[in-house]
Amino acid sequence: MAASKKIDAICIVITVLALILTILFMNGKALGLQPYSDPDGSSDGRFSSSDLKKKADTQGASTITLRGDSADITGNGAYFANGVLTIAYKGTYVLNGTLNGQIVVDADGDDKIWLVLDGLSVKCEDNAALYVKNADKVFVNLVEGSSNSFECGNAFSSSALKDNIKGAIFSRDDLTLNGTGELTVTGGYAHGIVCKDSLKIAGGTINVTARSDALHANDAVYIKDAGLTVKAGDDGITVSNDEGTGEFYMASGTVDVSEVYEGIEAENILVEGGELNISCKDDGFNATSTASGSGITVNDGTISIINTGGRDADGMDSNRDICINGGTIFVSVPSDGNALDCGSENGGKTVITGGSLIACGGTMMAESPDESTTQPTFMQGIQGNEGDVIRLETSDGEEILNKTVPNSFSAVTVSLPEFKQGLTYKLICGDQTKEITFTETVMITDISDNPMGGGGPGGGGPAGGGHP
Fold it and tell me: How many Cβ atoms sit within 10 Å of the Cβ of residue 1?
């Protein structure tokens, strides 16, 4: 009987404690309690709170001043020898000065490293100026008001080539650039920044010039709250891996890509905000995945893609879908190229549900928007020369579009939120005027040069009309 009473008492105590914990859990904030959260936990699915830090916590940090071919080190975790500064332990390192040599991060595989740059310039003639050899993740934080640079020469050493190093910044692990300062990267040998995992640019003003690709990553390039300017001999930004899951993602900020062959190439491309300007010789967007993902998706943001003289170029080229749900998009490619080219051979289609789209290109292999498009859209054959202005007026003469087109064109695809089903609009270019009446959501007219009838599989109907 005594044992039974003890058990009953224990059960009562446990029940009371459970009730107390439940009350604290449900009303913790009201009672002044703050829940624990992982300081490196994900804040929005792609960026952790640490990725988005503008200012690094430098309390207890090691301080390193570089002096050409020597270094003054205050604190633990780093050493200098033969022109190489090695970061060997987790923690935060504040770096300034000039180095004719290399910075190497070679720590344990679960170590997180913060490199806080406060006026740092590193040039390595025959290897990567910054080489992340081993770590869990490296954060390069740019101090407000600081100017920093990493530069490599035009020829790499045999040891660098043996290690397959191909960038002024070369990281074998996850790499984040953040802060509010400025960073200039010059890739004289091959690429500017190479990341064999995920590269995140979440702050600062980043300028990259490279002989080959400006940015080259295996798994992802994510951009938020940053200003990025790139020039390259090959692609502006490339993301590619053996699994076909590489992703380019932009949430906010500004990206300017110029003097490149292709603008952005990745298995999948997703833009949800910011401003993206691409001036290229070939494709502006090239989504290469044929097996998974949506191809190209634009939910918001401002995008300008202008071809600068290449042949058979596409503005947006996807091996799968092109999905435009919002944003403001302008595409201009010459009349021998496609403004929008979805992967109809892989079951892909172009679907427009929102946003403002003006896409000018050719008619020969033009892909029209799919019939599942929900925002009124037209694809109109019309001849335009370099520098011509296209205008749109309502039937009452109100101008709703006035746009200068830098390349010659023979087809224009336009989708605007202002369009209304059943109304008539005038498309004017020079002395040409075309009337479009939205009897259907997608109108395809005068695309006579296209043997597929202005869309091909999954696209629009025959030339001279809407869908059958």
Answer: 4
- Report the SS3 class of residue 419: coil
Distances in Å between the alpha carbon of 382 and those of 108, 189, 428, 462? 62, 45, 9, 16
Rounded to 5 degrees, what are φ and ψ at 344?
-60, -30
* Tens-digit pLDDT profile for residues 131-166: 999 999 999 999 999 999 999 999 999 999 999 999
Q: In the predicted model, is pLDDT for residue 360 greater than 60?
A: yes
Whole-model pTM?
0.87
Query: Which strands form 191-195's sheet, in the order they lie side by side?
Result: 78-81, 84-87, 102-106, 130-134, 167-171, 191-195, 215-217, 237-239, 264-266, 285-287, 314-318, 338-341
Nearest-angstrom CA–CA distance, 373 and 351: 5
Specify the pLDDT at position 29: 36
Domain boundaries of the chain, sorted by first residue: 54-184, 260-468
- Identify the helix (H) or strand (E) that includes residue 5: helix 2-27
Return the ∠ at Cα 372 (arms to 347 and 437), rounded to 5°: 130
Phi, psi of 160 (to 5 degrees): -65, -40
HSE (CB half, 13 Å, CA atoms) of 425? 24
